[in-house]
Each structure stands twice: as structure tokens, then as C-alpha cells.
Amino acid sequence: MEYLWDEMTLTFARTSMFPFFDIAHYLVSVMALKQRPGAAAVAWNNPLSSWLSAMLHCFGGGILSCIMLAEPPLKFLTNHTNILLASSIWYIVFFCPRDLVSQGYSYLPIQLLAAGMKEVTRTWKIVGGVTHANSYYRNGWIVMIAVGWARGAGGVIVTSCVELLKGDWKPEGDEWLKLSFPSKVTLLGSIIFTLQHTNHLAMSKHDLMFLYTIFLVTIKLTMMITKDTTVTLAPFEDTLNRMLFGWQQQFSLSEKKLESKLSSNGTASSGSKVTTEDSGSSERHAKKED
Amino acid sequence: MEYLWDEMTLTFARTSMFPFFDIAHYLVSVMALKQRPGAAAVAWNNPLSSWLSAMLHCFGGGILSCIMLAEPPLKFLTNHTNILLASSIWYIVFFCPRDLVSQGYSYLPIQLLAAGMKEVTRTWKIVGGVTHANSYYRNGWIVMIAVGWARGAGGVIVTSCVELLKGDWKPEGDEWLKLSFPSKVTLLGSIIFTLQHTNHLAMSKHDLMFLYTIFLVTIKLTMMITKDTTVTLAPFEDTLNRMLFGWQQQFSLSEKKLESKLSSNGTASSGSKVTTEDSGSSERHAKKED
Amino acid sequence: MEYLWDEMTLTFARTSMFPFFDIAHYLVSVMALKQRPGAAAVAWNNPLSSWLSAMLHCFGGGILSCIMLAEPPLKFLTNHTNILLASSIWYIVFFCPRDLVSQGYSYLPIQLLAAGMKEVTRTWKIVGGVTHANSYYRNGWIVMIAVGWARGAGGVIVTSCVELLKGDWKPEGDEWLKLSFPSKVTLLGSIIFTLQHTNHLAMSKHDLMFLYTIFLVTIKLTMMITKDTTVTLAPFEDTLNRMLFGWQQQFSLSEKKLESKLSSNGTASSGSKVTTEDSGSSERHAKKED
To answer: Which reactions are catalysed by this chain (chains A, B, C) (predicted)?
Structure first.
């Protein structure tokens, strides 16, 4: 039984992402670009600019990890096969007669399949990033976590910077306060794979890759089907926040209780303040007064 | 005859850009900086900031190609002779008594001579960029095109980023949709020199350098004398756009014709829509509805 | 006597910044972060974002010098001891019960001690930057000045860029016109140490480090006690500006005097113009008409 399990996970870990999983990743990325307002018009007016945006969406994570490790950001352009594949996907998505590709992509089973396959590539990217960083800084585990995270979920930073430079996006302070769900799971995966790589986790790499991929794909498909984005990680985050930062709230909470007892006018505002602080969630709005 | 031709192009290709062509390039760049609103005041109030802007205008293309290839962006500061020359040009332009240099530069023959010599340096930069990228990634032709383009025309990106950081420039989405004319000819040159470097073009490098420089200088001087900026490349661009992207327009155009026949209420809007789509130009405004 | 002096300066130059001087530097940096509006709320809502900002404040100069020399910007994350120390300072400052650390820091003697020790680290950073740049470009003195400056005072650039990306800061043109006082003294120090390193200054490195540190600490403490920010360098700056750029003002000043004599209607505006130009200060407002 164990031999069959080993066999299965090893075969899975040796699967090449090229071409089918890469195609799914490029398809999901380019469709995300197409759904931005004005993207189709940009493709008609300035195909070069549209092609460049598509390449940044497809290879953004790799570009960011190259910048972090002082490697040429243009390195992704040397992989001519993948560039040709991504460019073909871009061309077909934006210039197909009758917009057939977008219409086909609007069916949920197609979206689920593509999204699931894209999540598989995420695992490969995290593992690639962690291994690559280790070749630079042996046992530099913070660097390994950062590079794994960048390669798995960093594309959004690269595209946001470009949007900023193009004037299409004005950052609001709040946006940076909230890590998106893909970012959170990628950070989690990066930490786990770094622990495994530095031999702090008693599990083989191929077993971990298989289990983490199953986890990713399951979460992603569940979220797409149920349209619910934050179910799984919120309790875990709350616990972590209470442990590391929550005791300070408890401390000030008991102080407030003491103050309100001493000055018991019993106004509604202080009562509601005590109730608000009692939640202890990490999703508190930035305007909360302490 | 052929021997004379070879002799001439070889001598031309071995000409050093230092000092006369470099002086012309620095002069044109610093004058372009001086003509920005408020530049003279900045030079008086904060000479260091003005000097830095001037250096970015003069060496911006090289800085961008260094960033692309993960070389130190400060590498240009090690060439003390060129830095001294560019700094002297900046000092003379901004601090000459009675503003003599700006007055001299306002004469058209002087501007034509300087602009022509600057275009010669553009060829050298493209060739330098293509060769340099090839030393990093042998046969990485996309990288070679990108680095040649960056070194020949990338200065404007570096200075735009700095203007953005200084708050002097707010990007509008439309600006990035339109490649300037120097960018287009530099991209064309970069592609041609890359093809020559990878032995896909049956022409020697010195012949190509000579012919491309003649082309650049002729176009530039013609545009300055006639004040017309887009004559030469527009037909070529239209043809290319029709070939690669135009057939989709034809397809939707015949669809629209069919729809308007079937629902022939003959409103003015649909009639004008058909007329608009019939132009097929790539300079269509981004707000056009498809 | 000379032997005692040598002994003292050598011992001083061999002092390690770790841990006490580094603690002071991290404390001052994190307190500067905490005093920004909304920083405490960000720490509550998104500790990861707050921790990242704190790391950029503490290690920003090193990150900028790495970017300038095309080294991995993440290099600072490999020094686990310093990261742990800085993270602990951040945690204690933001999450201490009853905000004890901020209250302790509000006492002037504590601030003076921490600021003085932070200025000592500035000298070490400038020297480290100059030496490091020399290992890349032997005798590239402009690069050495730039890297020394970046490492000593470049943190503010890194944090400003991040603030810009977060939308918390809109750059005004004027801000970049005025170098802050720490930037000016760091530039001065960088130039001096570069001259010493290239053997143009007949002084040993440890003597220079001692004297420059005494100078920095004295200036900083004097400024904090007297609350005066620009006393010391303004006369020196004015002299330098007059020498390099002032003669042009003298020239146009005598021209103006001649013009006002010739057209002596004696209006108040031209009289005040002459008076304004006569000041010759480099702190002239950017709106001055020339």
C-alpha cells in the first residue's frame, strides 16, 4: 500500500507542467486580463501593449522572484517555447472570430478545470522558488519563504505596479491591509515547503507536493462552486492572532471594563465599544478607535 | 566600387561616438530637459536635483538596459570622462551668461546638426545593446530585441518614472497606448540588428549600420524641417495591423452588414458605426465601441 | 599623547554595532514608523504589513545600496540575528502593555541617547557602503560616494516609494527640491570617506571615523535640544552656491540694476526684485521668476 502511495506521489511530482497545465495557467491569466474594463479596446489599438500586459500576467511571479534575487527580469523571455505558447493563447483569446474562446470559458465546468490545473502549477512554482533561493542562500529560510511566495503569488504585485504606472489604478491604503486568499495560501505553502527543505518537517517532498496540491485544488474548486472566499482560513487566522497579538486586547479589555465600572454612567457607546473589542477578529476595520 | 563601399561603411562603423557625437546627444538631451516648465528654477534652487535629472536624460537608456540585465544601474557613473562631459554640457546650458547656449540652439541649422548627430548615436546604442544581450543569452533573440530597444529609446521610461515619483507627471492610460515615433523606429532597428546578429539577414553589420543610420537621419531631419511626425511608418503599420489583426475586423464588419440588412430600420448610429469600422486604422481611439 | 589618541580611535573604529547601537537604530526607526498617522491601527489589523514596513525602515539604506549594485535586495533577510532583533523591537514597541515603550521614549534623555547612538551607526554604514562599492569598481569614486550616501541615508527613499505604492503619500515637486539635513551630512560624509579611501585625504580611516562621528552626534544632539534644524550647514552651502552658481546671479543682477537705472520709474515691484535677487540664498522658493 505504502509502495503504491509512494509510486503515485513520485509520478505526480515528476509530471511536467508543459504543456497542458501551463496552457491552463496562461488561459486563466489572459482571461483575467481580458475581463478588465477596456482590455479588448487596448488589444485593438495597441496590440504590443496588450501582449506585454498578458506576458506580465502569465510570468509575473517569475519576474518578481528574479528581481528579488538580482537575476535579469528578462530571463523569462529566453524560454521561447513558453513565450510562444502564452502569446498564442493571448492571440486566440483576444482575436478569435465571434469571441469563441471567451464564450467557451464562460461555462463553469471549463472554468473549474482550468482553475484546478492552474492551482497545480502554483505548487510547482512555490517548490521551484524555494529550491532556487536555497541555491543562493543555503539555509536562508526567510529568503526561501519570500521567494517561494513571490513566485507562487507575486504576479499581482508586478501587474499592480504596471497599472499604477499606466495611471489605471490608484492604490488605497486599505487594499494593502488585506492579503488576498491566494496570497495567504501561497505564503502558507511557502512556509511548509521551506520547513520541509530545511529538514524540519518529516515528510518527503513528493508527498508534500501531492497533499498540498490536493488541498489547493479542493479549496479553490469549493470556493468557486459555493462563491465563498474566506471560510477555511479565518478560524486559523483568528487563533494565531489571539496567540500573538490578542493578549494585548485582553489586557486593554479588562482595563476598559474597570474604567466603565468606575464611571458607570452606562452610555451606549462605551457598552458597544466593549462588545466590539470582544470580537478579537483580525478583520477589524482600520477605522476602529482603540 | 564594392571595395570603396566596404571601405566607407567599415570606416563609418569604426567611428568613435566620443567626443563629438556624444556632445550632440548630451546637448539635445539637456536642452529637452531645459525646455520643461520650471527646469531653470530647479537648477537655481537645487543644482544637485537638476544635475541628476540631466544625467538620467543623457544615460537613461543605458540605465534601463542595465536594470533589464541585472547589472548595477550605477555602472554609467564609472565612465568618468563621459560623466564629466555631460556635466559640463549641463553646466554650460543652465548657467551660461545671457543664456547664450539656449539662444544659439534656437537656430534651426544648429538643431538639425545636433539632432542628426544624436540619431547616429542611436544606431550605436542599439548595436551595443543587441551585442551585450547576446553575450548574456546566446540566441535569446527576444531579449536581444528588448535590450537593443531599451538602450536606444528607453531613456524616456526612466525619466517618466522619476517624473512620476516627483509628482510632476500623472500618467493617463492613453499615453501608454501610443508608442512615440523614436520608439517605433528604434524597435524596428532593434529587430533588424537582431536578425543580422543571429545570421538571419544576409548583410554585414557595418553595411546595415550605415544604411540604418542614413535612414534614421533622413527621417529625423525631414520631420524637423516639415514638422510632420508620422508620415513614414503609418502605411507600413496599417498593413501589418490588417495582416495580423485586421481579418477579425473584416469578419465582424460583414456580420454588422448582415445585421443591419436584416434589421434595416436605417438609423444613423448603425450607419455611422459601419463607416467607422471600415477605416481599419490602428490609430482608432480607445473609446470606440466595437 | 599621539599613541593614546591612536589607541582610542582604533578601539572606537573596531567597536561592533551589534547589539547596542543596532538596538538604538531599530528603536528610533520603529518609533518613527509608529508616529505616522494610522500606524498602530495597521499593526492591529495587518501585523504582516506593519512588520514589513518596520523592516524597510530599519534596513532601507542597505536595500537601496543592494539595488544600486545589482545585489539581491533580500540579502538583508539572511542576517537572521539582526532580523530577529529588529522584529523583537517592532513587537515590543507596538504591542507592549500600556504602551510602556512609547511612554519611556517620550522622555528627552532617552531620545537623545537613542538618537546619538543611531548617528554612530550612520558612520559605520557610510564606511561600509564606500568600501563595498570599491570592491566592485576600484577607483569608481562617484559610485563610492553614491553607495555610501545610499547606505547612510537612503532608507527614506525606499520607504517613500512604498508609501507611494500604498497611496499614503502623494509627492509634491517641492519635496524633492529640498535635501533633508541627514541627507546633506551623509552626502558630506560619503564624499570625505571616499576621498580618504582613494588616498586623497591624508588621514587614517579610524581617525576620520572618530572625528566624523563626534561631528554627527554633536550636531544631532544640538539640533534636538535647541529644535533648530539648519543652523550649521547654511553658510557653507551659501558660499558653495555663490562660487559655483552665484556669479550668474551677479551678472544678471548688474544687468537688472542697469535696466532699472535706464527705466527709472521707480516702481515698487522692480525694487523688490533687485532686493530679492541680492540675497543669493539657495533656499529661494521654486516659484521665483528669473
So the answer is: K(+)(in) = K(+)(out)
* pLDDT at residue number A233: 66
Per-residue pLDDT at A70 exceeds 90: yes
What letters, b where the CB count within 10 A reaches 16 and e where it falls short, cover C134-145?
bebbeebbbbbb
Query: Which chains does B contact via 3+ CB–CB distances below 8 A?
Result: A, C
Identify the CA nearest to B177 among candidates B283, B60, B280: B283
Q: Is the pLDDT of residue A90 over 70?
A: yes
What is the longest distance spanned by two Cα atoms in chain B? 75
Q: How far is CA B60 from CA B51, B75, B156, C256, C266, in A?
A: 13, 12, 7, 38, 48
With contact defined as 3+ CB pairs under 8 Å, the chains touching A are B, C
The Cα–Cα gap between C207 and C197 comes to: 13
Tens of pLDDT, residues B22-46: 999 999 999 999 988 888 888 888 8
Say what angle helices B181-197 and B141-153 make with each other, to 10 degrees.
140
φ, ψ at C3 (rounded to 5°): -65, -40
Q: Of C100, C143, C169, C121, which is closest to residue C21 (Cα–Cα)?
A: C121
Cα–Cα nearest to A62, from A147, A141, A136:
A147
| Per-residue model confidence (pLDDT) at position C187 | 93
Query: Which pLDDT band, with edges at 50, 70 and 90, does C159 fall under?
Result: confident
CB contact under 8 Å between A286 and C74, yes or no, is no
List the grid coordinates of C190: 560619503
Q: How far apart are CA A117 and CA A21, in angstroms?
A: 5
- Among B46, B83, B91, B170, the strongest candidate for a mutation testing the C interface, having the largest count of C CBs within 10 A, is B46
| A63 has a chain C CB within 8 A of its CB | no
Q: Is B73 on the interface with C (CB under 8 A)?
A: yes
pLDDT per residue as tens digits for the range A201-238 = 888 999 999 999 999 999 999 988 887 655 566 677 77
Q: Is B139 left (phi over 0), alpha (psi -120 to 50) or beta?
A: left
Residues with Cβ within 8 Å of A210's Cβ and at least 6 positions away in sequence, in order, are A8, A9, A12, A13
Is the distance from CB of A118 to CB of A140 less than 8 angstroms?
Answer: no
Q: Calculate how close chain C gets to B122, using CA atoms only, in Å.
A: 25
CB < 8 Å to C83, chain A: 142
Please tell me which of the candidates C67, C245, C288 has its beta carbon nearest to residue B41: C288
Q: Tens digit of pLDDT for each residue in A249-272? A: 555 555 566 666 666 655 544 444
Question: Which three cell numbers, joined as nine digits, stand for A280?
Answer: 478579537
Question: Is A122:A186 a contact under the CB 8 Å cutoff?
Answer: yes
